[in-house]
Write a structure and sequence with these properties.
- By secondary structure, the protein is mostly beta strands.
- It has eight helices and 29 strands.
- Strands 2, 5, 8, 9, 10, 11, 12, 13, 14, 15, 17, 18 and 20 form a 13-stranded mixed beta sheet that branches. The protein has a five-stranded mixed beta sheet with strand order 6-4-1-3-7.
- The longest helix is centred in the first third of the chain and has 22 residues, at 9-30.
Length: 428
């Protein structure tokens, strides 16, 4: 038996060797070892709490936590099963170098023992590590877009007034304000919405950094939309100028148009802005009275100015010195009217011609001419002034009414002697 096993031993070993070689050749032909590349493999950072628990934050630089290409050498059968998601790339913070870099370790979660080699185009993750900084910012809301014709943006309010942010000190130190914007284009009624909170630097450039955390990302905003209307400003005066002076009645600024805004149900009832007369007190003035009026102080409740340029109005109340003029009046130009039935009336005490002196503003007095002025004693009017219900015969001193304009007065009144007598009854 032993002779049978050892007989031709060399031939038998050669046959075994050839069989192995043949198997390897067949295997190599049917399942050859090849190199394949796999793209965009993410790197998982391990033990990052070693950074964050020490009051620091980190930022991955240059997208180094993603390997653009991983080259794997393995049998074809392995490559047929291997996908990008089967490639595991990790970087352990415990291995952080003095240059703030971490070596990347590559492996697969299938057929790890069949892999001949695995290499990546990037072998380290680069970090920027900084102290963590927190800050609270006052939160304000803004509006953008063009409001509808005839409407105005009123009060803009938020349901929260603070936002707290944290992140790398170098980034947080650049943030100076937080704001939420609402687009008002085409809106004619109040807007209530949630708006995204954005962060800005001192130059109003938006800061968008994934390493910044916020306690709130959005805020509730209410935008009041007001209707506009154009109305006049009505002015009046109180008091009298100094003796010898008069107000001309002209007020520069009276009736000027301003634009106001408010809720439609309120603004519909406003036809003018009335400035109280006591605001323009011309008592004892001897020259034009000039003052500034802040119209906003006299706006009705819940109404505001649509244009801030309309707020201050410079108002001038014109005042001029009185002038006098003497007019010669003929006696026959003075007569009696409205004599009660059954009575006669006559006047006496006037010269054939006499002089009256009128006082007023230059423009009013200059228009008066003696030949256009008549004097009259209106018996009915005089009786009413005296409280008389029936005429009583007798002699009375009565002032003559020359029918002067309201803006013109007599320096001294002209009086006549009025005689009232009963008419004689004619006998039949």
């Amino acid at each position: 038996m032993k002779n049978k096993l050892t007989k031709n031993i060399g031939l038998k070993l050669g046959s075994v060797f050839l069989a192995v070689v043949l198997w390897l050749v067949v295997t190599s032909v049917n399942d050859p070892t090849e190199s394949h590349s796999y793209n965009n493999i993410p790197v998982t950072l391990l033990n990052v709490e070693l950074i964050t628990d020490s009051g620091q934050v980190y930022e991955v630089l240059d997208d180094s936590d993603k390997i653009s290409r991983v080259m794997i050498r393995a049998p074809r059968s392995v490559h047929n099963e291997l996908k990008e998601e089967n490639i595991i790339a990790t970087a352990d913070v415990r291995e952080l170098s003095s240059l703030d870099t971490i070596s990347i370790r590559l492996s697969t979660n299938i057929y790890p023992n069949e892999i001949t080699s695995i290499t990546g185009s990037t072998d380290t993750v680069k970090l920027n590590i900084e102290d963590k900084r927190s800050k609270a910012l006052t939160l304000k809301a803004t509006t953008s877009g063009q409001e509808e014709q005839g409407y105005l943006i009123g009060e803009v309010t938020t349901d929260q007034n603070l936002v707290r942010i944290s992140g790398p000190q170098s980034v947080i130190d650049r943030v100076v304000r937080a704001s939420a914007d609402v687009n008002v284009s085409g809106m004619t009624s109040d807007i209530v919405t949630n708006a995204e909170i954005k962060l800005y630097d001192a130059d109003d450039n938006e800061i968008s950094n994934p390493n910044i955390t916020q306690n709130i990302k959005t805020v509730g905003v209410k935008v009041s939309i007001l209707q506009k209307a154009s109305v006049p400003v009505n002015l009046s005066v109180t008091g009298q100028p100094a003796p010898g002076f008069r107000a001309t009645g002209e007020i520069d600024g009276n009736g000027s148009i301003i634009e106001i805004a408010g809720k439609s149900n309120v603004i519909r009832g406003i036809s003018a802005i009335e400035i109280p007369a006591e605001v323009l007190d011309i008592t004892d003035q001897t020259e034009d009275y000039v003052t500034d009026i802040d119209v906003r102080e006299y706006l009705p409740d819940n109404i505001l100015l649509a244009n801030s340029a309309d707020a201050i109005k410079t108002v001038t109340v014109y005042i001029e010195p009185e002038v006098s003029k003497k007019l010669e009046i003929r006696e026959e130009r003075v007569g009696v009217t409205n004599v009660p039935d059954g009575y006669n009336a006559s006047i006496s005490g006037l010269d054939e011609s006499f002089v009256i002196e009128v006082i007023g503003l230059s423009r009013d007095v200059a228009e008066l001419q003696a030949n256009s002025i008549s004097g009259v004693i209106d018996i009915q009017k005089w009786m009413q002034q005296e409280g008389m219900t029936e005429a009583e015969p007798g002699y009375y001193t009565v002032e003559v009414d020359f029918g002067l304009p309201d803006e013109v007065t007599l320096l001294e009144p002209v009086s006549v002697l009025l005689h009232i007598s009963e008419k004689e009854v004619e006998e039949e």
